[in-house]
Design brief:
120 residues, alpha+beta, three-stranded mixed sheet, elongated
C-alpha cells in the first residue's frame, strides 16, 4: 500500500495486470459508443430512408422539413406532386411509415409547397 497512514486506496502495479480481462482501446470505445447510441441512425434518418423507399424517384422532389410531436412535415417542389401526396396518397404513406419505421410513431404527415424565389 502506498500513501500516508490510514489511506485505504491501493495503487495498481504492473504485476496486478490481468491479461484475460484486458480490452483494447478500440473495444472500449466501441462499447462506449454503442451504449450511448451514437452509431444508431436517428429517427429523422430512419424516417427519411423509409420515405425515399416508399416514394422512389419522386422523393427527390421532397424534403423532410420537420419532425415534431409525431408529425412529419415535408416540403414538395411540385404543385402536382403536392396535390397527389396530400389528396390521394397521404393515408397510404402514413400506414407504410408505421410499418417501416418501428422506432418512431408518425401520427400525421403535413405537406407544403416549397417557396421559390422570384425572378428565377
Amino acid at each position: 500500500m502506498r500513501g500516508g497512514a490510514g489511506m485505504s486506496a491501493r495503487w495498481m502495479e504492473a504485476s496486478d495486470f490481468d491479461k484475460d480481462r484486458a480490452e483494447t482501446v478500440g473495444e472500449v470505445l466501441r462499447r462506449w459508443v454503442t451504449t450511448r447510441g451514437l452509431l444508431k441512425p436517428s429517427d429523422r434518418q430512419r424516417l427519411w430512408g423509409a420515405w425515399q423507399r416508399l416514394l422512389g424517384p419522386e422523393a427527390a422532389q421532397t424534403r423532410l422539413e420537420g419532425l415534431k410531436n409525431h408529425v412529419a412535415t415535408f416540403t414538395v417542389n411540385s404543385s402536382a406532386l403536392l396535390s397527389e401526396l396530400k389528396n390521394f396518397r397521404k393515408q397510404e404513406l402514413l400506414e407504410s411509415l408505421h410499418r417501416e419505421v418501428k422506432t418512431y410513431f408518425v401520427r400525421d404527415i403535413k405537406f407544403r409547397l416549397e417557396k421559390r424565389r422570384r425572378g428565377l
